Queue: 4 jobs
Job 1
Amino acid sequence: MSDDSAAVRFTVLDPSNSPESPDENRLADFYAYPDDLRACWVRGNMIASVDGGATDGGTSGSLGGPGDRAIFTQVRQLADVILVGAGTVRAENYSGAQSRPAQRQARRRRGQAEVPPVAVVTNRGTLDRDAKIFTSTEVPPLILTSANAVADTGDRLGSVAEVIDASGPNPDRVDTAAVLGILAGRGLFRVLAEGGPQILGTLMEHDLLDELCLTIAPLLVGGAAPRIAGGPGQVHTPLRRSHLLADDAGYLYARYIREASLP
Ligand SMILES: NC(=O)c1ccc[n+]([C@@H]2O[C@H](COP(=O)([O-])OP(=O)(O)OC[C@H]3O[C@@H](n4cnc5c(N)ncnc54)[C@H](OP(=O)(O)O)[C@@H]3O)[C@@H](O)[C@H]2O)c1
């Protein structure tokens, strides 16, 4: 054994050593946002294959299984707002979030709207008015777009969405810090970023991602699948593991929090 490995305490994640099987309420504890937020706390939730692919056949859907869908739903229920890039809305034909009666009650108890709105980030604003994000949703989405696209986008979408200028110094581009400022201004502090890789990469590049929940699917996809984070920005952001759950299908569910965000 090398000197290095002698200094490390490894832990075997064996269910017989740790027999807890969290129910829905306990699962919510594992994914609770910090209390008393005064600014946005941004949680990314992504899935990757074991070889690091973020898609399988062009979308992330076939990477998932029942456990991943349960966590996906759970973290949605804890969020004030779901943040997603226009690329993902187009590729996955996104619709609005849904809440069951018990979830609505829990959300009301937490002082949240019964259903979290989806906020879509788009520089160009070119979203199809007939897309499910507008037609299959209980609450109209927020469309966060650039100064140069806001008027046209608002005219085209009319009452099916709330279109907001979220650009910074460049009128052609959405500014991620401006996005979070807008959400915070509405009291939407518990942000759930569902991707895709471009948006996650931008959040990481600007050091705006507080935590990452990552599902590892027991699958190899090879090929040209993107990683869960893209873009040109190189970062080196230390994280701490908050938990690691497993299911019988072989999936792993990790939550990592940025060291700088820890109390
Ligand atoms: N594995 C996973 O967990 C996961 C999660 C989500 C998505 N996905 C997959 O990822 C793919 C889509 O991801 P994507 O990376 O192509 O798109 P994306 O991150 O969902 O959206 C990118 C779009 O966001 C807009 N945008 C606005 N400001 C931006 C900024 N500062 N930086 C980057 N984009 C900005 C642009 O929209 P406009 O072009 O409208 O201007 C851009 O085209 C799909 O295949 C989807 O299935 C995987």
Job 2
Amino acid sequence: MKVLDLRCTHGHGFEGWFASNEAFETQLAGGLVECPVCGDTAIVKLLSAPRLNLGNAKAPAETASTAPAQVPARLSPEARWMRAVREVIAKTEDVGERFAEEARKMHYGEAEERGIRGQATPEQTEALLDEGIAVMPLPIPAALKETLQ
Ligand SMILES: [Zn+2]
């Protein structure tokens, strides 16, 4: 399992989890690696300072991690990721394309607070983040997607 520091052409930094470097290259070539903030698929891999041991390298820019935090650390990153995605799916209501609308309503107290998931365009996601509404882009692993259909 590789955790790569990635960045889109708009300067959004994020982590991507891949089985291997080849898996990353393949997904990148297929346009499957997306910026979680803006959906950009022109992604570059950053060299990770700690792994290169450069000592006085600059601190990494703000990183929007796509990995949920409260998952036990004993599992492998892949298992943690799959589990986190399953949990999100189990605990959230699918509001589909009304996602941005529902998230905003909850934020402003016009709808009951609950876990929701759905689709939002990169513009909608950015607008929500601008308004201080916490949204987490969650690319569903292809393997899990198949079992859901
Ligand atoms: Zn971006």
Job 3
Amino acid sequence: MASSRRDLAVRASVDQGLLSPAEPVVALLDTAGIRASAAALTSAFAAVTDAPVLHAFAVKAAPLVPVLRLLREAGLGVEVASPGELALARAAGVPPTDTVLDSPAKTPAELRQALALGIAVNADNLQELARIDALVASAPTASPLGIRVNPQVGAGSIGALSTATATSKFGVALRDEGARKAVVQAYLERPWLTRLHTHTGSQGVPLALMAEGVGEAYALAEEINRTVGRQQIDTLDIGGGLPVNFHSDEETPTYAEYARLLADTVPGLFDGRYGLVTEFGRSLLAKHGTVLTRVEYTKTSGGRPIAVTHAGVQLATRTVYAPDAWPLRVLAYDSEGRPRTGEVTVQDVAGPACFTGDLLAAGRSLPLLHPGDVVAVPDTGAYCFAHHYAYNSLPRPGVHGFTVTENGDGDGGEGGDGVVTFTTVRKPQTLAEIVAESGGAHADALVG
Ligand SMILES: Cc1ncc(COP(=O)(O)O)c(C=O)c1O
């Protein structure tokens, strides 16, 4: 169980001095959980199709080289959307053949590099396609090439993450006047365009809407192949977007549910005529990351108890700025890392940044926190602690992977007695690094 592994890891973080007054915030990654999610993804699609499927992890969800290496070992590729993400993927040893480049603003240099390496590229728009035309004409490439389309099927509950709205910035907006015809024509004129891509959105988009977006892309691929008179599009990239449950430890919805829904609603997708690419991010990592922070002080303000911790906007930026869309659970432990019991009190859990809204949770019912207690923030493995926001020059925390091994009693740590081993995924940022990254070498740049 992920929750018993987490309890063991919290206790061990305190026992082993990972979390301490000197190091009051750390991030943990449950390697067994990540492996289990990767296996669940792979088997969910293997259960509905014999077609080749590349599961390309969306690097933006957890841009950490050791995470990419772990997922690579589990048989996954990567989806990258910037030169930085591509550099991380290469550092992790992911081969170009299992790398997909999507981004709405690729420069000529990025495109040239991708085509030289043989990385799959999805053109975001027809202007980008014209750049690719020139590159394809100038040198042979092994890159599988496609176009991203926006099926314009509508938004989910979080506007900022809904990519298939009528006016989304991503892809060719298929329902705009003349757009569909232009896309079909683009394939007719370019026999080397063999892929079609869509990503309907992320957190907040219901499975049925995701499947509708995929269905639209499939229908377009069929139309294009019919028009061209051959199976020119041989691979459909259906994007990522499986939402994550931030309210409990339950991992719902599942990849298996989504794969079955696709099999029911777009059966031709899985009949073997198309290879597939998926680009899941959040659903592979979110549940397997936990931020731990010590409570530095407690106080009351206007009668409301407040626990001031070291985890706030720098780690959970979306939660702090948009708390209704991005609620996070907060778990209370005592100073030795044991689950805190005691009377439940409505309280705020605040971060260290210098603005009032820097709250991990407002008005949350929890056992009353005390100075030195440990607060755990689960479900933070994607788009959270790996996406540091440098407010107040707060340092990036260390990230540690953990594994739990049996204590010889055969219960795999379920009885709360396994041995926890930590490995460094990323060291904490030092003050010297903060100064260096803040123009420390150019102190005189604006004077004299
Ligand atoms: C093109 C593309 N693919 C995949 C993803 C990953 O989405 P998620 O993390 O929700 O699975 C995103 C997220 O923004 C994306 O833009």
Job 4
Amino acid sequence: MRIVLGVGGGIAAYKSASLLRLFTEAGHNVSVIPTEASTKFVGAATWEALSGNRVSGSVFDEVEKVNHVRLGHEADLIVVAPATADLLARAASGQANDLLTNTLLMARGPVLFAPAMHTEMWSHPATRANVDTLRSRGVLVMEPGVGRLTGTDSGAGRLPDPKDIFAAAMAAAAPPQDQAALSGPLHGKTVTVTAGGTREPLDPVRFLGNRSSGKQGAALARAALDAGAQVRFIAAHMDIPAPEGVELTRVETALELREAVHAAAPGSDVLIMAAAVADFRPDTHSDTKIKKRDDGTDPVITLVRNPDILAEAVQRRTAAAGSTAAETGHKPLPALIVGFAAETGDGDADVLDYGRQKLKRKGCDLLVLNRVGSSLVFGQDSTEVTLLSPRDSADTVPLTFTGSKTEVARRIIARVAQELEAALPVR
Ligand SMILES: Cc1cc2nc3c(=O)[nH]c(=O)nc-3n(C[C@H](O)[C@H](O)[C@H](O)COP(=O)(O)O)c2cc1C
């Protein structure tokens, strides 16, 4: 999605850097338009570096590109954060005296303002009238947060949390009734997706974790939503927010994730296990912080194996096969179970061999194989995956997709829809 992020001249301008990050990490292309006043708080270099796009607040830069018309026309969504009292006034009265206000007048998609200002400015009759005018035109104006303001005072006027602005922006951009999703290949189906990396506690402050960012799982959930599915999203630790529109369950450890998967699987048509689940956990964890000992000895951490959740899901389905849901009184288990493998090759075998061995061991219906290394896959925006199916013969050349995690997720979901169609009649 193309997003214009307008930044007004308030102290909270720096918080928009986190908002920008949330947008770019979710795969959106963001053009930042700062007002002149805002550049006294945060400079254009920050916005250019974080967005990867040229930044200007003036209609007279890059005139050949007609930015004052183009940016508003092309934007799928415009978010103004922080929206100053001045910007609300200029937008309400239809002024066009800088690039941002020109862009607002050219907007074709939703517009969201996230105000930040002192309580007196927010409650002033002029600002109230401007907010009413904007809302009456369909513009979304968030309520500011309540709390500590710039000085020693506090009250209504804080910029809403960037995560809340992000969520409101995504909700604003989502069509009320997505026609494409209604006719999508997974319409009427329920897909459970696990995402992120589990954390196994050692004590109240330390844990054993992994580098999973949750981006691939989130992209899969979004692709499944776009294909019309209801999505149950089980999120271990993620660097990005969970996608809008999913039924969200947050978990921390592998055992919690296991419980959530076994609760979500009945009634799901597809189970996609994209989370990076710890193979091992410390055998005990301390309720108090583990301290350095005076006698000079150091603690030893003993690891125990975590259950293999993917293999368990397959076993449960096998055990239930043969008896109908009506007989057992349980909802049917997923017709399609998709595993993920993050593998590195070594002297004994290459990545593909390890992937095939894993597919056989787990017994799932599709295995998405990632080649991992220090700079590959984890936390990155692009990826390369190979799809392995138990139906492939030894000389089948497996399908490999390369691209952004969003694009790769779309292709995996398209394949999932095909496999599901093939699997359903034999349920
Ligand atoms: C330190 C400082 C903090 C400010 N914070 C805010 C603010 O949070 N909200 C606001 O509406 N104006 C704030 N202002 C006033 C705006 O910067 C001023 O109204 C400016 O003209 C806004 O321009 P813009 O709307 O084009 O960004 C602040 C000014 C200063 C000097």
